[in-house]
Amino acid sequence: CGQSGATIMCSVPECDRWFHLPCAKEGGCVNLYVTPFSSFCPEHRPEQEVEVTPEPDTICSICLEPVEDRMTFTTLVCPMCIRAWFHRDCIQGQAMSAGLLCLKCPLCRDSETFLVDLFLLGIRIPFRLPTWEDNDAFAELGVRHGQCNARDCLYPGGREEAEEEGPWQLLLCSSCAAEGTHRRCSGLRNSTDRWECDTC
């Protein structure tokens, strides 16, 4: 940008280029977010060692938009399956969302080689749980079905109530667990411990 105050220097000793952090990203520099936290100018930045080019009409595995027809700074490929292509910005967004513990290649599901390659190419991968685990976003998936779905529920306490055992114990469908019944509401004996709903 030609302005003063640049604090990032290319890590190649004979190179004298300096950058601001936002300018480095815009200018195609690579910053490694692992020890020793090196930075490289566009001339000295690391590149993928995979020698492959995308086939015609190849799309990004994340945004499903076309990728360039050759390996470039903005186009990356999974080093394991060599079929999953990404835009650099798309895989960076995926890395920020998934975090180190859940980021994998969307096609081959490799994580080890995939992560190492991304680290070396300057993709920042935070060491944390994925953002979709924030604020118990999927807590309701762990909630067990809790009501009697019989056409006529006979329990005096209502469909939402049940007892621990006996005729008013709530049995969930043994196939889908999405419907339930009190034993007596479906004419089941007290010894019956498996039941299937009409759908299943």
TrEMBL record:
SUPFAM superfamilies for this protein: FYVE/PHD zinc finger
Source species taxonomy: Eukaryota, Metazoa, Chordata, Craniata, Vertebrata
One Gene Ontology term, aspect cellular component: nucleus
SMART domains: PHD
Molecular function terms, GO-annotated: ligase activity; zinc ion binding
PANTHER family: PHD FINGER PROTEIN, PHD FINGER PROTEIN 7
Keyword terms of this UniProt record: Ligase, Metal-binding, Zinc, Zinc-finger
Taxonomic superkingdom: Eukaryota
Parts forming coiled coils: none
Keyword Isomerase found: no
Organism name: Molothrus ater
Protein name: G2E3 ligase
InterPro entries per UniProt: EPHD (IPR034732), PHD-type_Zinc_Finger (IPR051188), PHD_PHF7/G2E3-like (IPR059102), Znf_FYVE_PHD (IPR011011), Znf_PHD (IPR001965), Znf_RING (IPR001841), Znf_RING/FYVE/PHD (IPR013083)
Stretches assigned to the RING-type domain: 60-109
Keyword Zinc tagged: yes
The PHD-type domain, residue ranges: 1-45
